[in-house]
Write the structure tokens for this entry.
Amino acid sequence: MALGTFKGGGHPCYNKDATLGKPIESISLPEKVVIPLHQHTGAPCKPVVNVGDEVKIGQKIGDSDATLTAPIHASISGKVKAITEHPQSTGMDGMSVIIESDSFGTLDESIRPRDNVDRLNPEELIGIIKEAGIVGLGGAAFPTYFKLSPPKGKSFDCLLLNGAECEPYLSADHRLMVERPNDVVDGAKLLMKATGVKRVIIGIENNKPDAISALNKVAKDEEGIEIAGLDVKYPQGAEKQLIWAILRREVPSGGLPVDVGVVVNNVGTAVAVKEAVIHGSPLVRRVITVTGSCIREPKNLMVPIGTLVSDIIEICGGTQAPLKKLVVGGPMMGIAQHTTEIPVTKGTSGILLLSGEEVVLKDVLPCIRCGKCIEACPMNLMPLWLADYEEASRFDDCERLGALDCIECGCCSFICPSHRRLVEGIRLAKAEIVARRNAG
Amino acid sequence: MESGKLIVSSSPHQFTAISTPIIMSDVLFALMPACFAGVWFFGLRALGMIAACVGSAVVTEALLQKLCGKPITVSDYSAAVTGLLLALVVPPDLPIWVGVFGSVFSISIAKFTFGGLGHNIFNPALIGRAFLLASWPVFMTKWRWPIQEAPWMPGFDAVTTATPLVLMKHFNVKVPYNMLFFGKVAGTIGETSAIAILLGAAYLMYRGHIGIRIPFSFIGTVVVITALFGQDPLFHVLTGGLLLGAFFMATDYVTSPVTPKGKVAYGIGCGVLVALIRLYGGYPEGVCYAILIMNAATALIERYTLPRKFGEVKKLA
Amino acid sequence: MTKLLVIFFGGVLLNNFVLSRFLGICPFLGISQRVDTAAGMSIAVIFVMGLASVVTWFFHNMILVPMGLEYLQTIGFILIIAALVQLVEMVIQKSSPTLYQALGIYLPLITTNCAVLGVTILNISESYNLLEAAVNGIAGSSGFALAIILFAAIRERMEFSDIPESLKGFPIALITAGLMSMAFLGFSGFKLGALFGMM
Amino acid sequence: MREVLRLGFVLLVVCAIGGAVLAFVDGITSDRIAAQAAIRLQKALEDVLPGAAEFQDAEELLQEVKAEASKEGRPGLTVIDKMYLGYFQDECTGLVFTCSPPGYGGPIETVVGVSLKGEISGVSVIRHAETPGLGSNITNPEFQMRFIGISKGTEVKVREDGGQIDAITGATISSRAIADAVNGALLMFEIVYDKEAPGNEL
Amino acid sequence: MTVIPAVLTLGLTGAVFGIVLAAAAKKFHVEQDPRQDKICLCLPGANCGACGFPGCAGLAQAIAAGDAACNACPACGGEMVSKIASIMGIELPIQTEKKVARVLCQGSDDKSGLRYIYDGIHRCKAMNEIAGGAKSCVYGCLGLGSCVDACAFDAIHMGPLGLPVVDDLNCTSCGLCVEACPRDIIQLMPISQQVVVACNSKEKGAKVRRVCKIGCIGCGICVKVCPNGAITLRDNLAIIDPEKCDACGICVEKCPTKCIVMTKEPNAINGVANAG
Amino acid sequence: MSFKSEFNKGIINENPAFRMLLGMCPTLAISLAISNGIGMGLAATFVLVGSNVIISALRKVTPGRIRIPIFIVVIATFVTTVDLIMAAFLPDLHEVLGIFIPLIVVNCIIFARAEAFASQRGIIDSLADGLGMGIGWTLALCGLSAIRELLGTGTLLAIPDFGFAGIRIFSQGLAAVMAILPPGGFITLGLLIGLLNLITNRRKTKRQQV
């Protein structure tokens, strides 16, 4: 098919082989979980439990009255040991509820299959999704209920399910699609109902033929659900690029997918929606890929939210080389961590443990203006100039050149033969521009 | 490195293996066929010139950096590339000391004063050549044929001192294609053999270091204009420094536009200037000056050929 | 027509005022920090030089020559240019404030731009007729515009360069101008007459 | 209005004084400048036609010949700007032509002397804009000497064009321009010589 | 007489221009700030452009409009500046007491360690964005020297401890370093203020202790020992009121973490004087 | 300020060509040979001194609003005088300096001194200033010319129009002709100013260290 690609991008080493064929394993309940009260885009939650309370799986432990937020639920049963600051994958400390397991894994009474699913109207569906604390599982952790309600005057005509999984190393979505295609399709149907769209397209990179065929088998009888094979190119899974590749619609600068009538959700989110609506279970666990040169047994794991990375490393057989760099997420957009004592959150799609020379950044050489970053930029920006202007503190020029359009995919830094920290510079520029705007 | 502590850096955490020194050494490698052709046709003297230019370029760069207390970066091969390119665009019989002067001028004035690698406005090798041509025109316009007799035109001793373009321009004599293609003609050390240059260019394209925009728009424009003026386009493509210039000089990252549209505009500009200088200019050859003039225009071209941002809303006219 | 084209392109490319005749160097170095200001200056210079060429041509051929006072050329021309610049400035300021905003501020600087006086004197010494003089004036200023705009773009780029401390500012600007002028040597000996004669 | 007039008056006074000063200076220098120009011309002419002491501008004759030549469609005379008759003690010893053949950087002002025998007696370049170090070598006496003695009826060509004169290395165009001037001068001489017939006042 | 036509021609030309220009000036008169003309007369008129405005008239306009300072012309001496200032009707700023930059952190690597190895753009602002900076103390100096780079007067250097040291003599209190610091560690203080709390941490004492050996733990001993009542605690941090402080030095002596410093000597904070 | 110090400042500290970067056009255009430099420099010095003195003398009676046209007239009068005298007595040099003699009118040095100095100071000071600036400029011109002449032709002090070949330092064939072409002018002057900056900077840092 002629569609299925976009301008720019790059071809990082995919390195997915280590976990590609590994089925998703569920881990035994951890002894302790640390559940941050702020795992999503929007307002942080306030704890609704107290230290010493007994909690059960699925019990709400944090909530907020803000418009944009997502409630937090306990992922294991046990006792609330503390509500305190704890390191998180953002690099900063944040308020977290620490639960010590009673090792029973008791489910909360509220969790039971819903019997009136067919009678639910869109508003009710969206309400269920909100209460279940579902956020985008691709990484940005944007509350899903908010995405599904179009702002006034706009509407959706198409729902895209993102199964591209273009980040190197990661295979969590891939395994999910191969192992649970029914859940994906069911989730898609529920999302169709919630948004009222008649068309769902599941976009999958062509390097996952097993996922494509598995989903095709399930979806072929379903009306309105299509599978689209996509070019194998990073960042195929970026929202704007995905919409362009599948629908040839261009999200305007500064706009959202809804501006072109599209809503995009991760395949993992679809599964979470199904679990929430059909089984009545809130978002308390997710699939992550644990991989990298440093880990002894790379795996795809189903883990409770709040499980500490150090525990997960144990489960995967520990490290086989001194750990030099710990990345939460994929190697292109993931965040490097300074400690292993951080919990898995709703947005954690993978844990990457790297060692040796591969993690040491090379010295920055002068820009030779090769233009490879311009060719690689999927947003058609000028990364080399943006970084220059940022360094010269010429933020007006950064803005003029579209710094705010940058999706921080990392293609420019990846490709730069002079090892310039382009994305880092552009990110600084974006922060400064936003700060100046807010300052008036 | 302290053990136990993790390394933290901004994303991404994975990088391409291609680095500046690799690109530069690839360029050096791609120029090897042209060097061999030059040495084959013009003898060991050509080899001496290549060695002298490369050597003096590298030494000049190291010396200047040392004097100014900057880190010495000759290991990125960029000075070597400049020296080699300069050697390839001078006549084989140029006195070695003249070549060395050119090399020193290239590195010191055209590159170092502007802040070194990546900051030069003009292609240093071409500045070196333009400097030599303006300074020692007599040496720089003395040519030699690889074979002392030109069997296809016996008795015309002027051919021993004229390049095919000079023969064409002033004497209306056309050198056969096969000689041009293999490079058995008078000219600079590295520009005569079309096939050697094309081999190197193909390698660079295969490695993804040069795109098609600049060379093709450059050569295409020359073909169109020479044809329009009733000349033989193929002859103009094969003669002089056009191929070497289009594939190795005009594509110089630092001095050519970075924007895709800008590259095409730049190539067309080079092509127009080469064709006009060859047809009406004072010099028989215009590649060097055409590229230098477009180098001067690079910054301006970039300004007006910014790519359209993805998602940028078109303004209503 | 051919001659006019030859004069025009000759003035812009072959004998570029800045790069090969060394006229107008001060504004070339001084007002080339930004492309926008360089362009504003250029437009003002083109306007004034065209006008000055015409007026001084009349002054020379209608007043000085008949009276045998050619030696008053310099003093008369510079007076005319100074007055012209001031007059143009005032008229623009009154009639079109927007235009004045755009280029009025550059006008006072033109009086001391030797390119203006240079072009008027060249017009006389080359014994151009009125039309040729006007074209030469516009050509000279267009050449100035070309050089200064290219140069301004280069200077904007050089802001990010790690230029040796003692070469910053004027020295590197002069060296850049020198290399530009070296590139423009490529136009020397260009047979414009032959090119345009064909048309 | 008064202010206006006052300023106008001040400028009037200043300019008038300036004008007066200049007029005075011009009064002192104008004769000398004219004399200097005459001396320069005389010296240039003497250089190329040794032996002659006085020169007479033959503008009318030149125009006449040029007009005839253009009627006949004979090219080659356009390079000639002026023609002088050289005399020594009232006796004509030769012709001197000022020419401006097109060189590399524009016209090259050249003076060519032809002796009464129809041989080139001297060539010199007055003003040029050729490339320094290259074309500018046309001012070398050594190069100019190469033309001396060439007589009428011969067409002068540089060796690159299959002729007899060694061009300056790397400066064929400039050398060719001088050859053009010499050819023009010889041609002109021939026409004038034929026209005025031997024995008359030449 | 050749003089007469010359005199007449030039004189008339001059007169015509003078009158035309003066008349045109009237006819095309545009209302502008009358001060602009006066200022323009004060300026050198070389139209050199060094002020950054297009010519002296441009600068005059800017000064009259209040867009440029009275001393914006680099070629004008003090006399002219005061003249312009009087035209503009403003007093020249009164010379106030000199302020200098003070670095409010002494947490060198041995006292407040690093959480991780930073690899990225070598600027404090950039490091601060990455996981909140490598320093254990989130209020502490990141030590990449952005303040040193920002200083246009060569008044800040990296000291032997890897922390910035201010040279009081060169410091012009321009505030560039204050802006450059992402953690507000550098503040401008009157040079006469001799006692300084060289810590900026607003954490509780226990946490400060955990991450730094020389941070203010908010213990309040200094508040108690100060004979003048010049010290208060705010956000777990000691604040000295310079009005009341008489530099007796008792607090400096009693401070358990030695985060209060006497700045009598140059380079007192993080410099050699303090290093031993 | 004494006469001497006004005179001295123009030669080194405020050298118009190297420090204040005034009068670039003629500096670049005619600095091909030392003889040109001397001729042009002296011509400009004459104009500078003359106009400085006159403008200084007239400073009390010059109406502020038309001071510029008046300066221009005064300067232009001097320039034309020089032009005519040179044409009469030094025709060869006049030929070489060509268009740049009338252009002394718009040489910013002269204008700048008239405006910045002579219109505010006494006659003696202005005389000293004009003389200092003029000679400073002449010296700068000679320095630049010497370098360009040597590099470009291999000679020093040659005056070809008078048939004086000058002192040949090395053979013509070795000379880099570019030095006397326009690019050579720009680059030589740029490097020269850079070199002076380097020396001053070095001295400044040394003084600071002491």
Notes: The helical segments of chain D are 2-48, 59-72, 141-145, 172-196. The two ends of chain D are 70 Å apart (CA to CA). Residues 48-195 of chain D form one domain. Chain D has a mean pLDDT of 81.
